[in-house]
Design a protein that fits this description.
4 domains; Alpha-Beta Plaits; alpha/beta; Rossmann fold; 526 residues
């Protein structure tokens, strides 16, 4: 039986002792991880313990159980809440329901009743976790959505949005293995006057029924409001069989569907990672339809003598480089630049033909620097204007070293900027706390509204930078202010409590004694 974590909150010690000792926690599938005697303490404990279940009295000093449940419902949305009270009051029960409370128990609490409640809650928690973890349900949902996911993956692949190193993994995951031979992409274009909501579906169906060229395995799929064909070429010259069959399909589209269908065919590429290059060739082929003629298959290899000269710095390349700059280590950054340099080498082009690729890479670096407000001369050197040529470098290796140097500078500056930004944010938070600690409504939400940050992010950042939670830090500031006032003034304790953000002087005394080990009166006397 799975063990769930319980936080017990009640201002009466004998009730806490009775509940903690009389219940068979382990046998019920629970672990009592903490106890608190008021809502304020419980709030601090819950921040650390992250309980699955909170058992709380309603009537308590400093913060009642309903207010505690209201706050924790926001902070611990998956937790269950059980409230108990000595008052058979419908209004309490109604408020408890509004606070997302699972159970409402009247005092005096007896072990059998609480046992039954905990058993019900354990069952609820089990069901919720089972629903989330049920592998069979997840598998079924995944299989139902697999065709859509596969088509989305293939579309992203053709657009160059899939990192090269993940192509094989994702192809297997989405059941889209592409064969071991060369690959080619064909893109279908329908005349503007022939479009309707069902046009792409009709074209895809026509392709599935009639596109079976010898030596090819074809996979038509929806692509950008039209249809693409991914062809695995199993024999030499199979691309021409593909073109012939596409010509036949274009003719059938005219006869059966009254559509003017034109197919652009890209040059074959050796690996799935290179499919964006074939897709780019297919798009270029379609651009020639006004000159060559519509209603047929147009092969880029017939029109451009060296289609492989299109060396592309893809969106995937840019995303990889940007991610390595912002989040990666030295090895990851070096690996990305190695791959980009290998792309240059394997293209078999002259250095002059690298220029567009290099300029796009340089633009990507400039974009990261500009978004982070980095000084370009600090990154690229004094007098940098951006007017660089790839012929300034003697080899791909020299180009790679230059890029690596600039990337390392950018990454170092980004880290300094991020660290400085975090430090400034925490200092602003501290200033706000020191200016507003006397406000009893001071909360992390109010502070985050002032800083324009999300509470979850701020809480993580603040604890990382200061070593303590927001609540703990506010308490320290308030206690230091209280100690100064007690030692330096003759003001009444309740006035000092109010100035330090405590409306309830009894709770102020309680927190003060917990913090300093003595009451405010003894502290002042000492």
């Amino acid at each position: 039986m799975e063990q769930y974590r319980v936080l017990l909150v009640d201002d009466e010690e004998d009730i806490r002792v009775g509940i903690s000792q009389k219940m068979d926690w382990e046998g019920l599938g629970f672990s009592l991880v903490g106890e608190a005697e008021n809502g304020q303490d419980a709030l601090e404990l819950a921040e650390t313990l992250q309980p699955d279940v909170v058992l709380t009295d309603i009537k308590m000093p400093f913060m009642d159980g309903l207010e505690l449940c209201r706050i924790l419902t926001e902070r611990l949305p998956a937790s269950k809440f059980v409230v108990f009270s000595g008052f058979d009051d419908f209004e309490y029960a109604k408020q408890a329901i509004q606070m997302n409370v699972s159970e409402y128990i009247l005092k005096p609490i007896n072990a059998p009743e609480l046992t039954a409640v905990l058993q019900r809650i354990h069952g609820q928690l089990d069901r919720e976790r089972t629903e989330r973890r049920d592998a069979e349900q997840l598998r079924q949902r995944y299989e139902e959505s697999l065709p859509l996911l596969r088509n989305l993956f293939l579309s992203r692949l053709l657009d160059g949005h899939v990192p090269r190193e993940r192509v094989a993994e994702l192809s297997a995951r989405y059941d889209a293995e592409l064969g071991g031979g060369e690959l080619a992409v064909a893109l279908l274009h329908v005349g503007a006057a022939d479009q309707s909501e069902l046009t792409a579906l009709s074209v895809q169906q026509l392709l599935e029924e009639n596109l079976h060229p010898a030596g090819c395995v074809c996979r038509p799929f929806p692509y950008n409001d039209s249809v693409a064909v991914l062809a695995s070429l199993e024999t030499e010259g199979a691309v021409y069989e593909l073109i012939a069959q596409l010509n036949r399909v274009c003719a059938l589209a005219e006869t059966y569907l009254h559509l003017t269908l034109t197919a652009g065919v890209g040059a074959p590429v050796p690996a799935p990672e290179d499919l964006p290059r074939s897709a780019a060739g297919a798009r270029s082929a379609l651009e020639y339809r006004g000159m060559v003629g519509r209603g047929q298959a147009i092969y880029i290899g017939d029109l451009e003598l060296d289609p492989s000269a299109r060396l592309m710095f893809t969106e995937s390349d840019e995303q990889e480089l940007t991610s390595a700059l912002k989040l990666g280590g030295d090895e990851e950054l070096r690996a990305v630049l190695d791959r980009l340099t290998d792309k240059l080498r394997s293209a078999g082009l002259s250095s002059a033909q690298w220029q567009l690729f290099f300029l796009e890479l340089l633009t990507s670096l400039l974009k990261v620097a500009r978004e982070a407000d980095l000084d370009t001369e600090t990154v690229f050197g004094a007098g940098f204007t951006g007017l660089m040529k790839v012929t300034d470098f003697d080899s791909p290796e020299e180009l790679e070293e230059w890029c690596l140097d600039k990337c390392l500078r950018i990454r170092t500056l980004l880290r300094h900027r991020r660290t400085d930004s975090a430090g400034r944010t925490v200092e602003k938070a501290k200033d706000f706390i020191h200016s507003h600690y006397g406000d009893s409504s001071l909360s992390v939400e109010a502070l985050c509204e002032h800083l324009h940050l999300s509470p979850a992010y701020f809480s993580t950042l603040f604890k990382r930078e200061t070593g303590m939670s927001f609540t703990a830090y506010v308490t320290v500031v308030r206690m230091e202010a209280a100690a100064t006032a007690l030692r330096g003034t003759e003001d009444k304790t309740y006035l000092i409590a109010r100035r330090c953000g405590y409306e309830d002087p009894n709770y102020f005394s309680y927190v003060f004694k917990r913090h300093f080990g003595m009451s405010p009166t003894k502290f002042r006397a000492g």
